Amino acid sequence: MIQLKNIHKSFKDQKVLNGLSLEIPEGKTTVILGPSGEGKSVLLKTILGLLPPDEGEVYLEGEELYSLKERELTAKRRLFGMVFQNAALFDSLNVYENLAFPLRIHTDFPEKEIQAQVEEKLAQVDLSGRESKLPSELSGGMRKRVGLARALMLRPKIVLFDEPTTGLDPLLTQSIDDLIVDTQKRFNLTCVVVSHDVASGLRMAHNVAMLKGGTILEQGPPQEFVKSDKEFVKKFLNAAAIKT
Amino acid sequence: MIDFLKNFSLRFPWVHDFFHWLGNNFRQIFLDLGAFSFFAAKAFRWTFQGLFHVRVWVEQMMKIGVSSTPIVALVGLFSGMVFALQTGQAFKLFNAESLVGSTVGVALARELAPVFTALMIVARAGSGMAAEIGTMRVTEQIDALESMAVSPINYLVVPRLWATTLMMPLLVMIFNGLGLLGSYVVSVFLLEFCEGVYFFCYRYIVDPDDFYQGIIKAVFFGIALSLIACYQGYSTRGGAEGVGKATTKAVVYGSVCVLVMNYFLAIWLIEWFRY
Question: Nearest to residue B84, comparing CAs of B229, B191, B221, B174?
Fold first, then answer.
């Protein structure tokens, strides 16, 4: 389980996170909704141990992340996989090399085993046969799927998704949502998804939280979340044409 | 006293603004120097505690060393030629043509080869490092590395730092060799100085110590220029504009640092090799 306690984070004079506290249950998908520019990506990077908060603590399996030494923190990140908004694939490496990268760094697998694992993961994201393509030769949706496959290569316990469906057409959005739901179920992962796509978020969530003003305004299972009496949540859901 | 200063700044607001501007700039310089020092310390620490990425090391040595060889050789050849031409013309005035080879040799070994090579590497490899790492920073590829439990310092900075440091002395020796060839061609075939005297004076005056000085300088330049380039790339903010700024800063700061360091290293090395 991940626990965030009283997180504050500012960039120069701009307060992004303001006393945020949140519990992310194990083996479930938690979707954090919120308008653009509210600090959702900052929150993900804080959970991953990339962005130390100015104040507050992040607990992972009972251990405070930012009290760890740099080397221990780096090792702790093996528990995580992250799918970035623009996939963040290494642009000088092809799809195969991108997927093989974490295995080459962290395991002693022979090339045959690496190849087998890469092919298996590519098949899971429906991209078999695209091994030799460079990231620049892939569409946005394909890049996201390769990003997801790469995030799963080291069999992480926790996967963080940064706006996984932003900029995709409705059909592709649906297929990415299904992929996240399937992957979460198959590997019993703890997934944290940040998004401003309400419909997509509600489809895959076990637990939904609304980030506003640097703190969690509302949270709960999707069925309860849509019945929230908070004015901002209502407004946000109405704007996305979700029945409350 | 405080009242006096308050009244003074109210009467002369431009003085207040000037000192405010000056103070802010000094503060920023110290903050940058502090951040750079931490970055350099991390790079040295990760050298010993991190993984050894053989493929990246070899790749960087190829990029920085092997790929830079033709340009360094060309610059070395023409630097030796022009230096021989100019000193030859000047030395002829007081019949000291015999000293051209040794003068060029000493100048190349101690100063020209390490400094010119470093400037070429700053322009060629340093700008490339800053642009590559900067692009990785703004496209979240560095965050992706960290998310995969890979230290970007260990994976990106350490191989570049030591590849530059190892390749610099070799490139300096290539520069020296080609520079000497250029000066020999100009002195013997163009200015028609005696070949035997050219080599006799060269062997008599140029010491191995002169080459050691150049090599020691090359090592320090390699460390400094690669750290500056990597730091600029690593701390890139913003999009394409940020990458452009980081690249420019890497080249400007790297070149200035090489020239300033050269003077202080020269003072130290002259003293060191005197005994």
Answer: B191
Using an 8 Å CB-CB cutoff, list chain A residues near B234: none
Taking the complete model, does pTM exceed 0.90, yes or no?
no
In this complex, is the C-beta atom of A156 within 8 Å of any C-beta atom belonging to chain B?
Answer: no
**Domain extent listing, chain A:** 2-90+158-239
- CATH class for the region spanning A2-90+158-239: alpha beta
Beta strand spans in chain B (E): none
Do B160 and B64 form a contact (C-beta atoms < 8 A)? yes
Strands A29-33 and A14-24 turn out to be unpaired
Instruction: Tell me the one-letter amino acid at B9.
Output: S
B248 touches chain A (CB under 8 A): no
pLDDT of residue A69: 86
CB contact under 8 A, A84 and B143: yes
Give the chain A residue nearest B155 (alpha carbons). A105
pLDDT of residue A187: 86
Compare all CA atoms of chain A with the CA of B151 and give the residue at the minimum distance: A74
- Nearest Cα neighbor of B173 from B138, B217, B228 is B217
CA dihedral angle for residue B186, residue B187, residue B193, residue B198, rounded to 10 degrees: -150
Closest CA to A88 of B188, B142, B140: B140
Facing B143 at nearest CB: one of A74, A88, A91: A88
Structure confidence by residue, pLDDT tens digits, A208-237: 999 888 898 888 898 888 888 888 888 888
- Report d(CA A116, CA A101) in Å as an integer: 14
* Smallest CA–CA distance from A153 into chain B, residue: B148
Cα-Cα-Cα-Cα dihedral of B22, B26, B31, B36, to 10°? 130
Task: Report pLDDT digits (tens) over A173-213.
Answer: 888 888 889 888 988 899 999 988 888 888 889 999 998 88
- As a whole number, mean pLDDT of residues B53-59 equals 89
A16 contact partners, CB below 8 Å, separation of at least 6: A9, A10, A38, A39, A42, A214
Burial of A38 (0-12, 13-18, 19+ CB in 10 A): buried
CA distance linking residue B10 with residue A243, whole number of Å: 61
ipTM of the complex: 0.85
